[in-house]
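Internal tracking record. Fields below are filled automatically when a chain is submitted to the structure queue. Please do not edit lines marked as system-generated. If the sequence contains nonstandard residues, flag them in the REMARKS field before resubmitting.
Queue: standard
Priority: normal
Entity type: single polypeptide chain
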Amino acid sequence: MRNLLSLALALTAIVPASARAEGARYLIITTSSYAPYLEPLAEWKTRKGMPARIVTTQETGYSTQQIQDYVQQAVETWDPAPEYVLIAADQNTIAMAVEDGYNTDTTFGNLDDDLFVEVVPGRFPATSATEIQTMVAKTLQYERTPIVDDPFYFRSAALLIYEDHDDDDICSYFGDANWAAGLMEQAGFTDVNIWSYATTSNIYDRFEGLLNDGVGWAAHHGVVGSNCEWPAYGVDPEGLHNGPMLPIMVGYTCQTLGYSGYNCFGERWLQAGTPANPLGGVAYVGQAASCSYCAHWRSALRRGFWGYIFEDRGPTDIVAFGDAVEAGRLRYYEEFRSSSQYYVSTAMGDPELNIWTDVPQAFEISHPPIVPRGEIEFSVLVSQGGVPREGVLVCAMSDEGSYAYEYSDDDGLVSFSIDTSQDVELYLTATGRNLYPYEGNIQVYEVGAPVDTGDPPLDDTSDPDIPDDTDRPPVGIAPGGTCGCVSPAVPAAPLALLLLPLWLRRRREGRA
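SYSTEM-GENERATED OUTPUT FOLLOWS
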């Protein structure tokens, strides 16, 4: 399965620059030497309906103020405007901003100087082109081609505690861990481990074993260890063999990233491995500063993060990693009306990374297999188990520049209006919460051009919408017909169960 998924990834079409020329929902800021290696990420984001643009510091300027000004101008003038910004370089290459003496990436998304971000930031802490490629590979593996043959990865967590032997142990460490575990188990997690240093023998070896088994989440509660890493169980990510099932790491403690001149625990988890053999983690959230007697602050961040993922978002709402980090920051501010921990709470990884909270599921998608060239309208219907599915992001695009995206409504319907005058083929992509991504194609045909299939003419007497013989698409497929398809997470259901009847499609489009 892994070889087939890799092959499918390699064969996907390159997204044309024209598809993202007018704006971007996803902005990548990097160096000129790193930019080419970020193209696969930008192509995937664009293809799924998150149009991406890569700009270099030669264009934005090199200072944090210049980069902030560039993002603000993009928000004010681009259509669509950026919703996420990825800083693709470590802080020694593209520096973190400094606010009130604290290192922070929030400045790059804070456009009105009110503390809070309007564009959600994240960072690839890469020190080389190889590390950029590794982080891109991790992100694409996690989001685009997840390994679905082991449910453990999607339903497991390690919640680790390093005791202070004071009240914080009960209130902020064990209390938060048990609360998070309860949320996970309610969501269907089947293997949630709460281990403490004082009560769990061989905790380092046991944690390393869970990581190598493919645990999906790992979180630390307690003080920081030496060299800005997790204490006692601070496993070296380069010594693991956990690829490609890489966890999201949650490190709300003292400084484990963003330490000027030093490569901390958070950075190392994203840097670990190679593009061909990714190791460590796919994303990391932690603090870029230390403090004393502040476990209650970290508890608020933690509760905001977990609560956003498992409580605040609906069952069909896409959950992005950077949005969960921002929810943690907001929870801290709401409880303490302070800025310090807001500034230093940092997302290492793709800020738009779509988080899995269950095994990715197959779903049904019904769309025309062929459309005419010209200004057209067509619909897509998304369902799961025969029930319409809302909140699925569907994108149609072509190599020649056609581009449109929309979220399915509560009837599972997406309607597109596209000019296909220059197109040969449309690529259709659909992504949703805990849904295995669907990638399909729609052929574009020239109206009036003869189509020689070698088969008898199609009998169109029962349907006045079918054109005459010279205008018709290939035999057996009527314009306005549907292709019943299924995303590839599980074996496809019989085609008869997936096809959307033509009369139903017309009724939904208001033509009945």
